[in-house]
Write a structure and sequence with these properties.
Elements (H helix, E strand, L loop, with lengths): L1 H17 L3 E2 L7 H14 L5 E15 L2 E13 L13 E10 L5 E15 L8 H4 L2 H23 L36 E3 L7 H14 L4 E14 L7 E15 L16 E10 L7 E6 L5 H4 L8 H7 L2 E2 L15 H4 L2 E5 L6 H7 L3 E2 L5 E5 L3 H20 L6 E2 L17 E2 L1 H4 L26 E3 L4 H17 L4 E16 L1 E16 L15 E9 L1 H4 L4 E5 L32 E2 L5 H17 L4 E16 L1 E16 L15 E9 L1 H4 L4 E5 L18 H24 L7 H23 L6 E2 L9 H7 L16 E2 L11 E2 L18 H18 L8 H6 L11 H11 L28 E7 L3 H11 L2 E5 L7 E3 L1 E2 L13 E13 L4 E9 L11 E5 L11 E6 L1
Parallel strand pairs: 28-30, 33-36
Antiparallel strand pairs: 1-2, 2-3, 3-4, 4-5, 5-13, 6-7, 7-8, 8-9, 9-10, 9-11, 12-14, 15-16, 17-18, 18-19, 19-20, 20-21, 22-23, 23-24, 24-25, 25-26, 27-32, 29-34, 30-37, 31-34, 31-37, 34-35, 35-36
């Protein structure tokens, strides 16, 4: 038992010995450790230098099982020229320490955070010493200095592991304190502990500013984050008899527009209406500790600390500057933000604290090294001598920079402080003809300068860039409106946006001048359209009145182009001056302006007026507006709309608000609706009055030769004739035949309803999608869903084990990708009048997976799934998840040629020995569209579900309907994604990313059977049901 106790005590003693670092001879340091340390110093040096050569002057080893910790100290010769800390001086040497860690297996890790370096350079290296004064002593001095530094450091570290200074000796009792290296300060003017300035541009100061911003965010009561504008000044000091390093940073800080819960502060713009603050913040750092940096004072959060600080008395300049606030405008150059500091900053100059030193003392002190540069104090130029010697030349230079802001040619004589006598200067010669100012000295005449044409009257139009995003958007909308209203067979084209202005009225009024012509593209084509040869280019004016509180993001847009030239008479040959009449386009200031009767604000006011009339009327039936005749708007103390409507009585009793029609024999009256909108007073409920003519005293009506409701009847007849003509063209194009006249009339009625749906889709299209009459134009909505779709999410069985989630490859995506070009997609097929879209989506996916894996493209049988998949319902609908399981259960898929498609439910006659492709399992794919694209590129086409509301009348382009037209939660159609791309519109600086989707309605539908739909926002729910089979 006693023996074991002795063994245990010996083990503890050994562990105690090994817990302290021990010196090891530098010539016994393994080469691998030496090389790793050397490489790390070159890559992670805090001075950002590379080193030409260096000597290992000390090595220590500390055993901390299972590691050995090494500490190496190097004397290094850095490669530095223009980056030397003392401009013009020889490149100073550096002393650096680094820690390394080695495990039991010999693996070496450099602890880069442990690297510490310091300079060794002459005390008066900042003074310019010529090479003639140094003579041949420089070479010998450098060699002697290297030798002295190496020997001194090696001797002190190896023998004592401490560094002796004039005023203290570092003891080694504290194991947590890292050893440091310093040199004796031999300069008599050296000030221990005094602060000295650092370069504010140093990257190492960023953690200080970030910690200051974080502290101010935590302590301030405001809602917005603080943002650093600039580091104005930095000082560093090591107080005597202290174990900390003290930094003082003078920071210009403003408030950003981001709330405190914002993730990225650097992307937050400054609030231009909140003054910036100059904050003097004091930090204390213990570099050997991981979290050794802390804030001790901040005058912006605790102003009382500033006045009571003793250390701040050493820096009156920083303290005085920190009491200022600066108005900062992010839109102006950064230098403009400091104009408020200019008067103060110009009153500072640098002066050394030490008196003149004789040449002998300079020569003596230049051979010694110090660890810090001589302290530089900041003095206020309040004496008259200082202003004469330095201030005047600085002010002359400042005045020259001030004149640069004016377009005044100035001939400046070269002025130097030496060439100037006290109280004398050379007058600048200014060319008077450039000013166009007469000599008025002798005549005692004051020439008043004309007002600059740059002065902008309040409320007048202001020019804006033609590249402004709003201008581009309005031009695009105007172009679509011209295309929609024009009878031309080709699309219009914008040749150039000439100019644009914006005016603040009751809203914002944009006026944009463009050059417009006709493109060579037929109606409906939007890509790569160019100006048609011989097309007339007209200067057109686009006017856009935006009132977001009324128009709900749909501003009123008008386009005015000049009449054709043939309508202008040639008056040159007749020598007659044709006086041009005043243009009706000239609008008197404050007069009523006509606006479109289709304006959203007009429509809203008419609806409110109708409800008011209904509420106040004693009639048993609801009133009805037959026609909005005209509308004007006038800017008064608010907005005054005057709307003329034709109003009558409907056939609906009071209460119901749907399917109104004008009552037979109802008298129609022209009524005026007046709406005065003053949002600051009426809280969004404008004053509305409706004035209608009183009823005639005589009950006898004038007999009209045209009959009652003539205009309405004529409009209805014209619309019926137009729709019937379109229907005849449709019948001929798609070879439609109807058994009876009743069936034909039914299809014509459905056709007319579908024309209304087409107009709705066109009006609410966000992309470039084109909608029109196609093979489904005589199919009702109910028939379309029953016979041409077929995705049935309700067939999902809760008891089935969910498909596993697909692994997403981390790859860089190309700009576009298409599996059709790589031979993995069969030609477009046609499901006919059978709800089997789910089967075509699944077979298309399996065809692609098999082609990619086996390099052979096969066309597989959809009819097999319609007949034999007992988890789904054939032509009555199905689900891809069920189809994958059915294929695995059946034993595979036969070829299309062996089991052809019949577009109806039949008895299953699958032969397992004829199956060509087997499926092992299936996977669900993420709803993230970027990751869907990554999986597509790496693995092949993807089966998806989609809402097909916008697909029935799709003709081409990138479809992007609003969600209320295409609910992403109501999936009803199965299709196949085969690729993706992006459509570019350089004129409007716009890009439309899209998916390429293979459909199953034949190649006469859409773009040769394919559908391009917007990519990136889950349009129509296309990202919510993505899956793929795993082919054996």
């Amino acid at each position: 038992m006693g023996f074991l106790v002795y063994v245990y005590l010996g083990y503890l003693l050994l562990a105690r010995v090994q817990s302290n670092p021990v010196n090891i001879p530098v010539n016994q340091v393994p080469l691998t450790l030496w090389e790793r340390a050397w490489s790390a110093l070159n890559e992670h040096s805090p001075t950002h230098h590379l080193y030409a050569q260096g000597n290992l002057i000390n090595a220590q080893e500390l055993v901390e099982p299972p590691y050995k910790i090494y500490k190496f100290t190097y004397n290094l010769s850095p490669i530095c020229g223009a980056e030397s800390p003392v401009s013009g001086s020889p490149c100073p040497k550096e002393a650096c320490t680094i820690d390394l860690k080695q495990d039991e297996n010999g693996e070496i890790e450099t602890l880069n955070d442990s690297i510490q370096c310091m300079y060794f350079y002459p005390a008066d290296a900042q003074n310019e010493v010529s090479q003639e004064q140094q003579g041949d002593q420089s070479t010998s001095y450098q060699e002697q200095e290297d030798s002295q530094v190496t020997e001194s450091l090696a001797e002190q570290v190896n023998n004592n592991r401490s560094v002796e200074l004039y005023h203290e000796v570092q003891e080694t009792g504290d194991e947590n304190v890292r050893p440091f290296i310093a040199m004796r300060a031999s300069n008599p003017s050296y000030c221990p502990g005094c602060p000295y300035e650092l370069n504010p541009q140093l990257m190492g100061l960023l953690p200080f500013s970030k910690q200051a911003l974080k502290s101010m965010d935590e302590q301030s009561t405001g809602d917005y984050k603080h943002k650093l504008i600039k580091i104005v000044k930095v000082t560093r000091s090591v107080p005597v008899s202290s174990n900390v390093i003290q930094y003082q940073l003078l920071l210009l800080i403003g408030e950003s527009e981001c709330l405190k819960n914002a993730l990225e502060q650097d992307e937050c713009p400054l609030q231009v209406d909140v003054p910036a603050k100059l904050c003097l913040i004091t930090f204390e750092q213990q570099p050997w500790q991981q979290t050794g940096l802390k804030i001790t004072k901040n005058n912006c959060t605790s102003p009382e600390n500033v006045s009571s600080s003793n250390n701040l008395s050493q820096q009156p300049d920083s303290e005085s500057l920190s009491q200022m606030t600066v108005k900062y405008d992010e839109g102006q150059p950064l230098k403009d933000a400091y104009e408020g500091l200019k008067d103060i900053l110009d009153n500072y100059t640098h002066a050394p604290t030490s008196p003149e030193i004789s040449s002998e003392s300079k020569e003596t002190s230049s051979k010694r090294a110090v660890t810090e540069p001589t302290i530089v104090k900041i003095l206020l130029n309040r004496s008259q001598d200082d202003e004469k010697n330095e201030g005047f030349f600085d002010k002359t230079k400042e005045f020259g920079e001030f004149l640069e802001d004016f377009d005044v040619p100035v001939k400046v004589e070269h002025v130097t402080p030496e060439s100037m006598k006290e109280g004398e200067f050379k007058r600048k010669k200014v060319r008077a003809e450039n000013f166009m100012v007469e000599k008025a000295i002798d005549r005692n005449v004051v020439n008043r300068q004309k007002r600059s044409p740059q002065v902008q009257l309040v409320g007048a139009p202001s020019p804006i860039s033609v590249n402004d995003s709003d201008v581009q958007m309005y031009v695009e909308k105007a172009l679509r409106m011209v295309s929609h209203d024009s009878d031309e067979p080709n699309e219009p084209s914008i040749v150039e946006i000439v100019k644009a202005t914006v005016q603040v009225v009751a809203g914002s009024l944009h006026k944009i001048t463009v050059k417009m012509g006709t493109s060579h593209c037929a109606k409906g084509t939007k890509n790569n359209c160019q100006l048609q040869a011989g097309s007339e280019v007209k200067d057109c004016q686009i006017s856009v009145l935006s009132q977001s509180w009324l128009d709900k993001g749909e501003p009123s847009i008008t386009v005015e182009c000049p009449p054709p030239p043939e309508m202008v008479e040639k008056a040159t040959d007749r020598n007659v001056v044709n006086r041009q009449k005043r243009s009706p386009q000239v609008q008197l200031l404050g007069a009523p302006s006509p606006i479109s009767v289709n304006d959203s604000g007009v429509q809203m006011y008419v609806e409110k007026a109708l409800r008011k009339v209904s509420h106040e009327s004693n009639e048993p039936n609801e009133p009805i507006v037959v026609e909005i005749v005209k509308a004007t708007v006038q800017t008064v103390a608010g907005r005054l709309h005057k709307i003329t409507v034709r109003m009558g009585t409907s056939n609906c009793p009071k209460g119901p608000t749907h399917n109104w029609q004008l009552q037979a024999g109802s008298e129609m009256k022209d009524c005026q609706i007046s709406v005065l909108s003053q949002p600051w007073l009426d809280s969004g409920e404008p004053s509305i009055t409706v004035e209608c003519p009183p009823p005639e005293k005589s009950h006898r009506k004038e007999r009209s030769l045209r009959g009652t409701n003539y205009n309405e009847k004529m409009l209805r007849i014209a619309e019926d004739m137009r729709s019937e003509r379109l229907f005849e063209n449709f019948v001929n194009t798609y070879n439609r035949t109807y058994a009876t006249e009743e069936e034909r009339n039914l299809r014509l009625s459905i056709f007319r309803e579908n024309l209304g749906i087409i107009r709705l889709l066109r009006k609410n299209e966000q992309g470039t999608g084109q909608y029109g009459v196609n093979q489904f134009a005589d199919v009702s909505t109910e028939e379309f869903h029953a016979f041409y779709l077929g995705l049935r999410p309700d067939l999902r069985t809760e008891n089935n084990i969910p498909l596993r989630q697909a692994e997403i490859p981390d790859i860089e995506l190309p700009n576009s990708f298409d599996w059709r070009q790589k031979g993995a997609v069969t030609p477009v097929k046609n499901q006919g009048m059978c709800g089997s879209c789910w089967a075509f989506s699944v077979t298309g996916n399996v065809e692609g997976q098999y082609a990619i894996k086996h390099n052979k493209l096969l066309s597989l049988s959809e009819q097999e799934l319609v007949d034999c998949d007992d988890l789904d319902e054939g032509c009555n609908g199905g689900l891809p998840d069920n189809a994958y399981r059915a294929i695995e259960k059946l034993g595979g898929l036969e070829l299309e040629s062996d089991y052809p498609y019949e577009a109806e439910n039949e008895r299953c006659h699958f032969k397992k020995n004829m199956a060509k492709v087997q499926v092992g399992s299936a996977v669900n794919i993420t709803s993230n569209e970027t990751q869907i694209a990554q999986w597509l590129v790496a693995n092949g086409p993807i089966s998806i579900g989609i809402n097909a509301n916008a697909m029935q009348f799709y003709m081409g382009g990138v479809s992007h309907p609003f969600k209320f037209l295409c609910n992403p939660k109501n999936l009803d159609h199965g299709v196949l994604i085969v690729g993706y791309g992006t459509s570019n519109y350089p004129l409007f600086h716009k890009k439309l990313p899209y998916w390429i989707v293979k459909n199953s309605w034949g190649d006469r539908w859409g773009e040769q059977g394919y559908y391009r739909v917007y990519r990136g926002d889950g349009t129509c729910g296309l990202n919510t049901m993505a899956s793929s089979a795993v082919v054996v």
